[in-house]
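Working notes for the structural subgroup meeting. M.R. asked for a predicted model of this chain before we commit to crystallization trials. I am recording the input and output together here so anyone reviewing the notebook later can reproduce the run.

Input as submitted:
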Amino acid sequence: YFLGDPEQIRKLMEAVANQGKK
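Returned structure, recorded in token form:
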């Protein structure tokens, strides 16, 4: 993960959420 990059973390979280929904 990229500390100091909230946008990147948010994108990663969204991607994980999408994968978990599958």
